[in-house]
Write a structure and sequence with these properties.
The chain has 539 residues and is α/β, with parallel strands linked by helices. The protein has 14 helices and 18 strands. It has an eight-stranded parallel beta sheet. Strands 12-13-14-18-16 form a five-stranded antiparallel beta sheet. A hairpin with a 6-residue loop joins strand 12 and strand 13. The structure holds alpha-D-glucopyranose (GLC) and calcium ion. Calcium ion (CA) binds next to loops.
Length: 539
């Protein structure tokens, strides 16, 4: 049972992201579904997480993995039914796990009834005013209304048969809503209430920093990928506009009118001092810390990001969050297997340089042991508790990320982190489905990472996550950095010291330290390179 009197649960919650297509399949069609999730919630209870966040399961043509929503208040046939959703929430709550759903307010699918109505209506109609329709530039309006580029490559505008253009910051199948229209706001309030009435514990809000665009949609001749920062002293006109905050305050009031503590979590690729503005009192509860995710395996960079993140959030009374992987970036077990910077969303093909798997996993385990010791709330992406690598050899024909086509087969995209999970070894699709084939193919060696392979094995990655998530609950008190050798991050939380050895040589622990948790083999009091330990200090 969840403790409904706990109003502060979100300040320290470990939140597990489920990508429904790839978690577990209940009906043998090779695609994960809600009943599959419900059947496997025990895994998450044993893992020790406080909440799950479900990526979209709404009706959708799946042009962008369901982030192209055709109906915000229903379940896609392939994922199940509304009663299946209710059963999932009930089972999760019985197990003490809260449920957060994905809200996609920047854009919908071109199959959404409102967008179809807009296309069928005349320029200037109220139906078109739900979106950003404009006449084009050039003598015949043959040029897009401005120079904005889609996040998935190519222009951010598509022309309709009657000559007008509509704005889409992502795929052309994802028209952007016009948030200066009160009808859009009213519609989304209905969506919030719909899911709150079904007892969800909160919303993860997709690209919430893009909802409001600068007046006049001025040109922006610069790229916008990764964490958004001002260029030449200007913020991009499609990101982080002041008007977003008023919307968040309205939503917060709606959530606060419900029983229990329901939360809003911002997805916004902004630097810490800008994300902190979204979590000011009366706005959202927390925001993803993508600046943290972006750091390479570099002690100074990681330590600096920890400091700026905590100080930015402390200044507004919000918890800091931490995240290393999600459905949009190369899994961290593979990312850290490269030396130097990695393009987070670009994907890897069989002919590209491959990561050093052993190195990647060792560093990923150290990175997670560090992350889970930090104060605040932490996000875990399905499969990372298995040390699952990115699938870096998917055949190009199976790729589904819209960026692959839109970039003219230049950018492979994010499919490699979305491959169905392995549960067991000797079953079709490693226990994911009764089917041998899955919507994205699993690697032949996925059985080595299966839950059943790692369960009860003391030094497995699964055991490390379980131990860390359990011990994490006893870490209280603020973080205080300690003196440490170069490329070592060391801090205390109460009587526990955390030492992350990011250097290339071993470091010695203080005499009398009792090792509570280690991400790799520790001999005596010597912490090898690329290893994190938690120790209790001698009293
Ligand atoms: C968010 C989602 C990503 C999606 C994009 C457009 O960044 O996490 O998967 O493609 O928004 O909705
Ligand atoms: Ca299924």
């Amino acid at each position: 049972m969840i403790d409904s009197t706990d109003t502060e649960w979100w300040r320290t919650a470990a939140i597990y992201q489920i990508y429904p297509r790839s978690f577990s399949d209940s009906n043998g069609d090779g695609t994960g579904d809600l009943a599959g999730i419900t059947a496997r919630l025990d895994h998450l209870a044993t893992l020790g997480v406080d909440a799950v966040w479900l990526s979209p399961f709404y009706p959708s043509p799946q042009n962008d993995g369901g982030y192209d929503v055709a109906d915000y208040r229903n379940v896609a046939d392939e994922f199940g039914t509304l009663p299946d959703f209710d059963a999932l929430v009930a089972r999760a709550h019985d197990l003490g796990i809260r449920v957060i759903v994905d809200l996609v307010p920047n854009h919908c699918s071109w199959e959404h009834a409102s967008f179809r109505a807009a296309l069928a209506s005349a320029p200037g109609s109220p139906e078109r005013a739900m979106f950003h329709f404009r006449d084009g530039r050039g003598t015949d309006g043959e040029l897009p209304p401005n120079d904005w580029q889609s996040m998935f490559e190519g222009p951010a505008w598509t022309r309709t048969p009657d000559g007008q253009w509509y704005l889409h910051l992502f795929d052309e199948s994802q028209p952007d809503w016009n948030w200066s229209n009160p009808a859009v706001r009213a519609d989304f309030e209905q969506t919030l209430r719909f899911w709150l009435d079904r007892d969800v514990d909160g919303f993860r809000v997709d690209v919430c920093d893009a909802m409001v665009k600068a007046d006049g949609l001025p040109d922006w001749p610069y790229p916008t990928k990764g964490v958004v920062r001002p260029i030449d002293g200007r913020m991009p006109p499609m990101w982080d506009q002041e008007g977003i905050h008023e919307i968040f305050r309205e939503w917060r009031a709606v959530l606060d009118s419900y029983e229990g503590t329901r939360i809003l979590c911002a997805e916004a690729w902004l630097p810490p001092e800008r994300t902190a503005r979204i979590v000011r009192p009366g706005e959202m509860h927390q925001a993803f810390n993508f600046a943290y995710l972006e750091q390479q395996w570099d002690a100074t960079a990681i330590r600096d990001t920890i400091e700026t993140s905590i100080s930015s959030n402390d200044a507004v009374g919000a918890p800091t969050t931490w995240v290393l992987s999600n459905h949009d970036v190369m899994r961290h077990a593979s990312r850290y297997g490269y030396d130097g910077p990695v393009a987070l969303e670009s994907g890897v093909g069989a002919d590209d340089p491959q990561p050093d798997r052993a190195l990647g996993l060792r560093r990923a385990r150290a990175a997670t042991a560090l992350m889970l010791a930090l104060p605040g709330s932490a996000y875990i992406y399905q499969g990372e508790e298995l040390g699952l690598p990115e699938s870096t050899d998917l055949p190009d024909e199976v790729r589904q990320d819209p960026v692959w086509e839109r970039s003219g087969h230049r950018i492979r995209g994010r499919d490699g982190c979305r491959v169905p999970l392995p549960w067991t070894v000797s079953a079709p699709s490693f226990g994911f489905s009764a089917s041998e084939t899955t919507w994205l193919p699993q690697a032949a060696d996925f059985g080595n990472f299966a839950v059943a392979t790692q369960d009860g094995v003391p030094d497995s990655t699964l055991s490390l996550y379980r131990e860390a998530l359990s011990l994490r609950r006893s870490l209280t008190g603020p973080l205080e950095f300690s003196e440490a050798p170069a490329d070592v991050i060391s801090f205390t939380r109460g009587d526990v010291r955390v030492v992350a050895n990011i250097s290339t040589s071993p470091v010695a622990l203080q005499a009398g330290s009792e090792v509570l948790l280690a991400s790799g083999p520790v001999q005596g009091l010597t912490v090898p390179a690329d290893t994190t330990v938690w120790v209790r200090l001698a009293s």
